[in-house]
Design brief:
15% strand; alpha/beta; eight-stranded parallel β-sheet; globular; two-stranded antiparallel ribbon; 353 residues; 12 helices
Length: 353
């Protein structure tokens, strides 16, 4: 599957007469043509801040059988696809999100190019801290950070950590994923100090006492890929688990009601969407995920519906990883997830008023 470059996308969107839209760099428009916040001062008054990260696990030419450049381009391509939408008007809810929420694009977190080729504690933590800095700037401004990335820790723990550190009480978690990511140590670096791809969630709970596992709602895993002792450990600790088998049995509305434990008695909620959860049931073939794909995936509607429910209930930070590479409609799915989540947030604000 060949992804069109920005020049072709721009030509097709604007029919040869490009409008002036904010650009982060020469082939990266801002998300939904929103203002580009270049400094922390530019975040003043924002409700939501979009942040990108190009961090990709591993050091080879491919990751999970897919060219690593395809993975790294996710934040840019999501922004490119968002440029096709001329406003924040979501017709299903008859609401223009941007009339009710101030949203800005804060560009990408700083990443040393060496991190693509060398994975040591120093290089990985430096990349993580680059994302943390942007997330903290958003939180300082009273805004909700939404990070578009590809791998952990930059697309997961780097968002959870600042939220946990800033919350006096407990933090709930809503997580969509094909994999639990709860190994004792990640195999990317084999360093117990790093919240890497296969271990970031277990490290999150290890490092932060105010994130009880009983307030975790875990959605989407299936099949035979997990270590039974690790899964049982989380279940015994009170994790609220909705494997895809159960999701198919109870339906999407019951699943949305099942989000309650993330909010019960908590003071903040961190939301994480690992988009390999769509497997082969999303808007494009599961094979574009390489060996990450598993049967019984969530559909694009189910993912977007959960996102909207989270928006209605409220959330303090959100992140994406493992965005299936190369498909324009998959990148548009991420746009929908963000916009329908913000539509929920805007509707909740109107209800409160």
């Amino acid at each position: 599957m060949t992804y069109r470059g920005w020049n072709q996308i721009k030509h097709d969107i604007f029919e040869g007469s490009p409008e002036e839209i904010p650009m982060i760099d020469e082939d990266t428009p801002t998300f939904m043509r929103l203002p580009h916040a270049k400094t922390a001062a530019d975040l003043e008054g924002a409700d939501v801040v979009i942040i990108g990260s190009t961090y990709v696990a591993g050091t080879g030419d491919t990751l999970w059988s897919v060219d690593r450049r395809e993975w790294a381009a996710a934040a840019k391509r999501v922004r490119q696809q968002s440029a096709r939408y001329p406003s924040g008007y979501v017709q299903e809810f008859d609401i223009d999100v941007f009339e009710h929420l101030k949203v800005v694009d804060y560009g990408n977190a700083d990443l040393d190019p060496e991190t693509h080729y060398t994975k040591t504690y120093e290089t990985v933590i430096a990349a993580q801290r680059g994302v943390e800095a942007k997330v903290n700037d958003a939180l300082n401004a009273g805004a909700v950070p939404i990070v578009i990335s590809q791998n952990s820790p930059c697309g997961s723990y780097a968002i959870a950590k600042p939220i946990a550190e800033r919350t006096d009480g407990t933090v709930g978690v809503v997580s969509l994923d094909t994999h639990w990511d709860i190994r004792a140590i990640d195999n990317d670096t084999n360093d117990p100090r790093i919240a890497g791809a296969a271990a970031w969630k277990s490290k999150m709970y290890e490092f932060h006492d105010n994130m009880p596992i009983r307030n975790l709602v875990e959605i989407g895993e299936r099949g035979m890929i997990e270590e039974k002792d690790r899964v049982r450990m989380f279940l015994d600790a009170g994790a609220n688990f909705y494997p895809m088998w159960k999701v198919r049995r109870i339906g999407i509305e019951a699943l949305c009601e099942g989000l309650d434990p993330a909010y019960d008695g908590t003071d903040a909620v961190y939301v994480h969407f690992d988009m390999d959860v769509i497997g082969g049931a999303g808007p494009s073939p599961g094979d574009i995920l390489g060996n990450l794909a598993e049967p019984i995936g969530m559909t694009d509607y189910e993912v977007i519906r959960v996102a909207h429910e989270v928006g209605l209930r409220g959330f303090d930070g959100m992140s994406f990883i493992c965005i299936p590479p190369g498909s324009e409609v998959v990148y548009r799915t991420i746009v929908y997830v963000i916009m329908y989540m913000m539509a929920g947030k805007a509707l909740a604000t109107l209800t409160e008023a």
